[in-house]
Amino acid sequence: MLGFSKYMTEMRTLPSSASIALILLLGSVLSACVSETTGGFEQAPDEEALENYLALAQGYLEQQDLQAARRHLNNAANIDPNNSDAYGLWGLIYTLEGDLGLADESFNRAIRLNRGNSRVRNNYAAFLFANERYEEAYNHLEVVVSDTAYQGRAQAFENMGLAAQRLNRLEDAEYAFTRALQLNSNRIRSTLELADISLQRGDTRAAQNYYSRFQTLQQFFNIQPNARSLWVAVRLEQSRGMESRMREYGATLAELYPDSNEYELYRQLIND
Protein backbone atom coordinates (compact mmCIF):
# COMPACT_ATOMS: atom_id res chain seq x y z
CA MET A 1 0.00 0.00 0.00
CA LEU A 2 2.64 2.52 1.05
CA GLY A 3 5.93 3.63 -0.40
CA PHE A 4 6.65 5.31 2.91
CA SER A 5 9.91 4.18 4.47
CA LYS A 6 8.54 4.92 7.93
CA TYR A 7 5.91 6.94 9.74
CA MET A 8 6.78 9.75 12.09
CA THR A 9 4.98 13.02 12.73
CA GLU A 10 5.96 15.53 10.06
CA MET A 11 5.92 15.05 6.34
CA ARG A 12 8.88 15.46 4.03
CA THR A 13 9.83 14.27 0.57
CA LEU A 14 12.06 11.40 -0.39
CA PRO A 15 14.93 12.00 -2.79
CA SER A 16 14.12 8.79 -4.67
CA SER A 17 11.43 8.88 -7.34
CA ALA A 18 11.01 5.11 -7.03
CA SER A 19 9.17 5.62 -3.76
CA ILE A 20 5.98 7.53 -3.10
CA ALA A 21 7.89 10.72 -2.33
CA LEU A 22 6.27 11.60 0.95
CA ILE A 23 7.20 10.36 4.46
CA LEU A 24 6.61 11.58 7.98
CA LEU A 25 9.54 12.94 9.93
CA LEU A 26 9.59 13.16 13.71
CA GLY A 27 10.10 16.51 15.34
CA SER A 28 11.16 16.73 18.94
CA VAL A 29 10.14 13.64 20.87
CA LEU A 30 10.08 15.09 24.34
CA SER A 31 9.61 18.76 25.04
CA ALA A 32 10.91 18.31 28.57
CA CYS A 33 12.35 15.63 30.82
CA VAL A 34 9.63 13.63 32.52
CA SER A 35 9.65 10.95 35.17
CA GLU A 36 7.35 8.03 34.45
CA THR A 37 5.97 5.80 37.20
CA THR A 38 3.79 2.74 37.02
CA GLY A 39 0.78 4.84 37.83
CA GLY A 40 1.52 7.82 35.59
CA PHE A 41 3.31 11.11 36.24
CA GLU A 42 4.05 12.20 39.79
CA GLN A 43 2.25 15.35 40.90
CA ALA A 44 1.85 16.67 37.34
CA PRO A 45 -1.05 19.01 36.54
CA ASP A 46 -3.47 17.63 33.98
CA GLU A 47 -2.26 19.88 31.17
CA GLU A 48 1.38 19.01 31.75
CA ALA A 49 0.59 15.32 32.07
CA LEU A 50 -1.36 15.45 28.81
CA GLU A 51 1.59 17.01 26.99
CA ASN A 52 3.93 14.42 28.44
CA TYR A 53 1.72 11.50 27.46
CA LEU A 54 1.45 12.84 23.91
CA ALA A 55 5.21 13.37 23.71
CA LEU A 56 5.85 9.82 24.90
CA ALA A 57 3.31 8.41 22.46
CA GLN A 58 5.05 10.31 19.69
CA GLY A 59 8.44 9.00 20.79
CA TYR A 60 7.28 5.40 20.90
CA LEU A 61 5.66 5.87 17.51
CA GLU A 62 9.04 6.91 16.15
CA GLN A 63 10.44 3.63 17.44
CA GLN A 64 7.40 1.83 15.99
CA ASP A 65 6.53 0.50 19.44
CA LEU A 66 2.82 0.78 18.78
CA GLN A 67 1.72 -0.94 21.98
CA ALA A 68 3.54 1.62 24.13
CA ALA A 69 2.28 4.48 21.95
CA ARG A 70 -1.28 3.21 22.38
CA ARG A 71 -0.85 3.02 26.16
CA HIS A 72 0.21 6.64 26.42
CA LEU A 73 -2.53 7.81 24.06
CA ASN A 74 -5.09 6.02 26.22
CA ASN A 75 -3.65 7.81 29.25
CA ALA A 76 -3.94 11.10 27.36
CA ALA A 77 -7.58 10.33 26.52
CA ASN A 78 -8.36 9.95 30.23
CA ILE A 79 -7.35 13.60 30.63
CA ASP A 80 -8.72 15.03 27.37
CA PRO A 81 -10.82 12.72 25.17
CA ASN A 82 -11.07 15.36 22.44
CA ASN A 83 -7.46 16.31 21.79
CA SER A 84 -6.61 17.00 18.14
CA ASP A 85 -2.95 15.97 18.42
CA ALA A 86 -3.93 12.67 20.03
CA TYR A 87 -6.30 11.79 17.19
CA GLY A 88 -3.58 12.74 14.72
CA LEU A 89 -1.26 10.22 16.37
CA TRP A 90 -4.00 7.61 16.28
CA GLY A 91 -4.20 8.23 12.55
CA LEU A 92 -0.52 7.38 12.20
CA ILE A 93 -0.83 4.25 14.36
CA TYR A 94 -3.80 2.95 12.39
CA THR A 95 -1.95 3.62 9.15
CA LEU A 96 1.03 1.59 10.31
CA GLU A 97 -1.32 -1.21 11.32
CA GLY A 98 -3.03 -1.15 7.93
CA ASP A 99 -6.41 -0.03 9.27
CA LEU A 100 -6.91 2.64 6.64
CA GLY A 101 -10.55 3.33 7.41
CA LEU A 102 -9.80 3.97 11.07
CA ALA A 103 -6.78 6.07 10.10
CA ASP A 104 -8.90 8.24 7.81
CA GLU A 105 -11.55 8.62 10.50
CA SER A 106 -8.95 9.60 13.11
CA PHE A 107 -7.29 12.20 10.91
CA ASN A 108 -10.65 13.73 10.03
CA ARG A 109 -11.70 13.89 13.67
CA ALA A 110 -8.37 15.52 14.57
CA ILE A 111 -8.97 18.21 11.96
CA ARG A 112 -12.57 18.76 13.04
CA LEU A 113 -11.37 19.27 16.60
CA ASN A 114 -8.77 21.83 15.52
CA ARG A 115 -8.93 23.05 11.93
CA GLY A 116 -5.81 25.12 12.53
CA ASN A 117 -3.65 22.10 13.38
CA SER A 118 -1.34 22.31 10.37
CA ARG A 119 0.90 19.44 11.45
CA VAL A 120 -2.00 17.00 11.61
CA ARG A 121 -3.43 18.29 8.34
CA ASN A 122 0.00 17.91 6.74
CA ASN A 123 0.21 14.31 7.96
CA TYR A 124 -3.27 13.61 6.64
CA ALA A 125 -2.16 14.94 3.26
CA ALA A 126 0.70 12.41 3.35
CA PHE A 127 -1.80 9.65 4.07
CA LEU A 128 -4.00 10.78 1.19
CA PHE A 129 -1.06 11.02 -1.21
CA ALA A 130 0.13 7.53 -0.30
CA ASN A 131 -3.32 6.21 -1.10
CA GLU A 132 -3.39 8.00 -4.47
CA ARG A 133 -6.00 10.51 -3.34
CA TYR A 134 -4.01 13.32 -4.90
CA GLU A 135 -6.77 15.91 -5.28
CA GLU A 136 -7.67 15.68 -1.60
CA ALA A 137 -4.00 15.80 -0.61
CA TYR A 138 -3.49 18.92 -2.71
CA ASN A 139 -6.51 20.64 -1.17
CA HIS A 140 -5.33 19.98 2.38
CA LEU A 141 -1.81 21.17 1.54
CA GLU A 142 -3.28 24.40 0.19
CA VAL A 143 -4.66 25.01 3.67
CA VAL A 144 -1.35 24.09 5.31
CA VAL A 145 0.73 26.49 3.21
CA SER A 146 -1.66 29.34 4.03
CA ASP A 147 -0.54 29.03 7.67
CA THR A 148 2.40 31.44 7.69
CA ALA A 149 3.31 30.42 11.25
CA TYR A 150 3.77 26.77 10.32
CA GLN A 151 7.46 25.88 10.46
CA GLY A 152 7.18 23.18 7.79
CA ARG A 153 5.68 25.53 5.21
CA ALA A 154 8.48 25.16 2.64
CA GLN A 155 8.15 21.39 2.85
CA ALA A 156 4.39 21.63 2.51
CA PHE A 157 4.76 23.70 -0.67
CA GLU A 158 7.13 21.06 -2.04
CA ASN A 159 4.67 18.30 -1.24
CA MET A 160 1.88 20.33 -2.83
CA GLY A 161 4.00 20.51 -5.97
CA LEU A 162 4.38 16.72 -5.99
CA ALA A 163 0.62 16.30 -5.66
CA ALA A 164 0.07 18.78 -8.50
CA GLN A 165 2.42 16.73 -10.69
CA ARG A 166 0.36 13.61 -10.06
CA LEU A 167 -2.69 15.61 -11.16
CA ASN A 168 -0.87 16.75 -14.33
CA ARG A 169 -1.19 20.39 -13.27
CA LEU A 170 2.16 21.71 -14.44
CA GLU A 171 1.57 25.39 -13.63
CA ASP A 172 0.41 24.61 -10.10
CA ALA A 173 3.42 22.34 -9.59
CA GLU A 174 5.81 25.00 -10.85
CA TYR A 175 4.28 27.62 -8.55
CA ALA A 176 4.47 25.33 -5.52
CA PHE A 177 8.10 24.31 -6.11
CA THR A 178 9.07 27.94 -6.72
CA ARG A 179 7.45 29.00 -3.44
CA ALA A 180 9.23 26.17 -1.63
CA LEU A 181 12.57 27.51 -2.86
CA GLN A 182 11.64 31.06 -1.91
CA LEU A 183 11.08 29.89 1.65
CA ASN A 184 14.06 27.53 1.73
CA SER A 185 16.63 27.62 -1.05
CA ASN A 186 17.98 24.23 0.06
CA ARG A 187 14.87 22.29 -1.00
CA ILE A 188 16.74 19.85 -3.24
CA ARG A 189 13.66 18.03 -4.55
CA SER A 190 12.01 21.28 -5.61
CA THR A 191 15.17 22.27 -7.45
CA LEU A 192 15.22 18.98 -9.38
CA GLU A 193 11.52 19.17 -10.20
CA LEU A 194 11.88 22.72 -11.52
CA ALA A 195 14.69 21.50 -13.77
CA ASP A 196 12.34 18.83 -15.08
CA ILE A 197 9.47 21.28 -15.57
CA SER A 198 11.78 23.68 -17.42
CA LEU A 199 12.74 20.85 -19.78
CA GLN A 200 9.08 20.11 -20.40
CA ARG A 201 8.61 23.77 -21.30
CA GLY A 202 11.60 23.68 -23.65
CA ASP A 203 13.56 26.18 -21.54
CA THR A 204 16.99 24.55 -21.60
CA ARG A 205 18.77 27.49 -19.98
CA ALA A 206 16.47 27.51 -16.95
CA ALA A 207 16.72 23.72 -16.73
CA GLN A 208 20.52 23.96 -16.74
CA ASN A 209 20.47 26.57 -13.98
CA TYR A 210 18.17 24.50 -11.79
CA TYR A 211 20.11 21.31 -12.39
CA SER A 212 23.39 23.03 -11.53
CA ARG A 213 21.82 24.18 -8.26
CA PHE A 214 20.59 20.65 -7.69
CA GLN A 215 24.09 19.24 -8.18
CA THR A 216 25.53 21.79 -5.75
CA LEU A 217 23.00 20.78 -3.10
CA GLN A 218 23.55 17.12 -3.89
CA GLN A 219 27.26 17.50 -3.24
CA PHE A 220 26.77 19.64 -0.13
CA PHE A 221 24.35 17.16 1.48
CA ASN A 222 26.32 14.16 0.17
CA ILE A 223 23.27 12.69 -1.58
CA GLN A 224 23.83 10.01 -4.19
CA PRO A 225 22.09 10.38 -7.56
CA ASN A 226 18.86 8.47 -7.95
CA ALA A 227 17.16 7.23 -11.08
CA ARG A 228 15.03 10.34 -11.48
CA SER A 229 17.89 12.82 -11.15
CA LEU A 230 19.94 10.84 -13.69
CA TRP A 231 17.02 10.73 -16.11
CA VAL A 232 16.60 14.51 -15.84
CA ALA A 233 20.34 14.84 -16.55
CA VAL A 234 20.03 12.59 -19.61
CA ARG A 235 17.22 14.72 -21.04
CA LEU A 236 19.03 17.95 -20.20
CA GLU A 237 22.17 16.90 -22.05
CA GLN A 238 20.08 15.73 -24.97
CA SER A 239 18.40 19.13 -25.17
CA ARG A 240 21.83 20.78 -25.13
CA GLY A 241 23.06 18.53 -27.94
CA MET A 242 25.69 16.95 -25.68
CA GLU A 243 25.34 13.32 -26.75
CA SER A 244 28.52 12.08 -25.07
CA ARG A 245 27.49 13.51 -21.70
CA MET A 246 23.98 12.18 -22.21
CA ARG A 247 25.39 8.68 -22.70
CA GLU A 248 27.62 9.06 -19.63
CA TYR A 249 24.57 9.73 -17.49
CA GLY A 250 22.78 6.90 -19.25
CA ALA A 251 25.62 4.53 -18.45
CA THR A 252 25.42 5.51 -14.78
CA LEU A 253 21.67 4.94 -14.88
CA ALA A 254 22.23 1.48 -16.38
CA GLU A 255 24.84 0.61 -13.77
CA LEU A 256 22.99 1.83 -10.68
CA TYR A 257 19.33 1.39 -11.60
CA PRO A 258 19.02 -1.23 -14.37
CA ASP A 259 15.49 -2.20 -13.26
CA SER A 260 14.13 1.35 -13.03
CA ASN A 261 11.45 2.88 -15.23
CA GLU A 262 13.92 5.67 -15.97
CA TYR A 263 16.43 3.26 -17.46
CA GLU A 264 13.71 1.75 -19.65
CA LEU A 265 12.87 5.27 -20.86
CA TYR A 266 16.55 5.85 -21.59
CA ARG A 267 16.75 2.66 -23.63
CA GLN A 268 13.74 3.77 -25.65
CA LEU A 269 15.34 7.17 -26.16
CA ILE A 270 18.61 5.87 -27.61
CA ASN A 271 16.87 3.23 -29.73
CA ASP A 272 14.50 5.67 -31.42
Strand and helix layout:
Blueprint: E1 11-13, E2 22-24, E3 36-37, E4 40-41, H1 46-62, H2 66-79, H3 84-97, H4 100-113, H5 118-130, H6 134-145, H7 153-166, H8 170-183, H9 188-200, H10 204-220, H11 227-239, H12 243-256, H13 261-271
Helix pairs in contact: 1-2, 1-3, 2-3, 3-4, 3-5, 4-5, 5-6, 6-7, 7-8, 8-9, 9-10, 9-11, 10-11, 11-12, 11-13
Number of helical stretches of at least 4 residues: 13
Give me the CATH superfamily of one domain.
Tetratricopeptide repeat domain
How much beta, percentage-wise? under 5%
CATH fold naming of one domain: Serine Threonine Protein Phosphatase 5, Tetratricopeptide repeat
Question: Can you describe what's shown?
Answer:
- With 272 residues, this protein is mainly alpha-helical.
- 44% of the residues are buried.
Question: Can you describe this structure in just a few lines?
Answer:
This protein is mainly alpha-helical. The chain has helices at 46-62, 66-79, 84-97, 100-113, 118-130, 134-145, 153-166, 170-183, 188-200, 204-220, 227-239, 243-256, 261-271, and strands at residues 11-13, 22-24, 36-37, 40-41. A hairpin with an 8-residue loop joins strand 1 (11-13) and strand 2.
Overview features:
elongated, two-stranded antiparallel sheet, 272 residues, mainly alpha, Serine Threonine Protein Phosphatase 5, Tetratricopeptide repeat
